[in-house]
Design goal:
Length: about 180
């Protein structure tokens, strides 16, 4: 059965001047801010994107990503987008301090952030991208000629790009044999 995905997503990328954590898990938006708290259903979250896909940040740096999904009823509401981005900006220092207090992050947000990029996708991505932890290598250990590709392997990209990147990496490995 075909399901039509409607609505949009707001995402903000934050470039960090240094690596502050090895954390790979996804942080659901269960924050105290009314605009980004999700308590009942999945509507977004945040994670250290370059920990999942190392190719997203230069060596020694890190890329953090936070997103919020909206349904069709909010489509075209630029005020909602602006409120979301502003609430992300307010929440980031609090999130980093919480992670730091739990020993999961080495620095405060203000001390490491050096870039912010806001993106709006309409319609939203339409799929929640979860990866297996740990992610398998592309080349299967111990089985000659077996390669894994897709959006759950270790490669230098994320999401749909990861599937393509892993395919290219596998092809290069095969051609190099």
């Amino acid at each position: 059965q075909h399901r039509e995905y409607q609505g949009f997503a707001v995402g903000v990328f934050y470039g960090l001047r240094k690596k502050v954590t090895d954390m790979t898990r996804y942080i659901r938006l269960l924050a105290p801010h009314a605009e980004i708290g999700t308590q009942g259903k999945y509507e977004g979250g945040a994670f250290f994107l370059s920990n999942t896909s190392p190719g997203h940040a230069p060596d020694g740096k890190q890329l953090f990503f936070i997103e919020r999904f909206y349904g069709k009823e909010t489509e075209g509401d630029w005020d909602a987008i602006e409120r979301t981005v502003e609430n992300f900006r307010k929440w980031m220092p609090e999130l980093f301090e919480t992670l730091k207090a739990q020993g999961l992050c080495s620095d405060s947000f203000a001390d490491v952030v050096e870039m912010e990029k806001v993106g709006v996708h309409q319609p939203s991505w339409g799929v929640v991208q979860w990866t297996t932890i740990p992610n398998p290598e592309i080349k299967a250990p111990g089985i000659e000629g077996l390669y894994f590709i897709g959006d759950t392997v270790k490669a230098g990209a994320w999401g749909y790009d990861l599937a393509a990147a892993s395919g290219v990496d596998a092809a290069e490995m095969i051609l190099a044999r």
